[in-house]
Amino acid sequence: MKIYTHILFDLDHTLWDFEKNSEETLYTLYDQFELASFGKFDSSSFYKKYKFVNTRLWDMYNKGRIKQAELRESRFVKTLTGLGLEPHEVPQGLSEAYMELCPTKTAVFPFTFEVLEYLQPKYGLHILTNGFKDAQHVKMASSKLHGYFKEIVTSECCGYKKPDRRMFEHLLELINVQPEECLMVGDNFECDIEGARDAGIDQVYFNPEKIKKKGALKPTYEIHCLSQLKEML
């Protein structure tokens, strides 16, 4: 194991449990906006369809094919029209309600706080996220993650999105360190792992579902639980 001085973390799906927090939010909104009254889908179908649509839109956003506004504005329209509603039937304010409620949710992955408590005295800890600036800061404050990190770099504030190496280089300049001193921890193979590799940074692929990557280059390290970071570092 090399000697590192700084650990870079992705936020969503790595520390902050996006799936659990989003699911809880969507079940609340299903009731709040009385979506059952349409008689075309239940709350579980609503959640599953949204997850399908949102994942694909985020992939397009990360690849620069759509803008932030389009992602936010279209995901509920695509979800609900895909479930049988007409565009004019999609409730007004649904997207805004999601953006207001979801970031206040507090679920994090198992061992998040134990690992951060262990790492903080030994390393500089930083966040590197493609998530939207306004939402990411609310997420970190609500889930009590803010105090562990020195720099929080979002794609909006630096003008680049992972896997663009310039986003990683922006953070390196901020903290004034060389790539070989850093280790990137993230769940998204393309954005976090390949992006960090292109910037000369070693990587930890957080893969809790043990998804096999066909033909993908190997990350420097791979873990299935955050607790493994305590064993490594």
TrEMBL record:
EC numbers for this chain: 3.1.3.5
Ribosomal protein in keyword set: no
InterPro entries registered for this protein in UniProt: HAD-like_sf (IPR036412), HAD-SF_hydro_IA (IPR006439), HAD-SF_hydro_IA_YjjG/PynA (IPR011951), HAD_sf (IPR023214), PGP-like_dom2 (IPR023198), Pyrimidine_5'-ntase_YjjG (IPR052550)
Example of a GO MF term: 5'-nucleotidase activity
Top-tier EC class: hydrolase
Keyword Hydrolase recorded: yes
Keyword terms of this UniProt record: Hydrolase
PANTHER family: PTHR47478, PYRIMIDINE 5'-NUCLEOTIDASE YJJG
Protein name per UniProt: YjjG family noncanonical pyrimidine nucleotidase
Lineage: Bacteria, Pseudomonadati, Bacteroidota, Cytophagia, Cytophagales
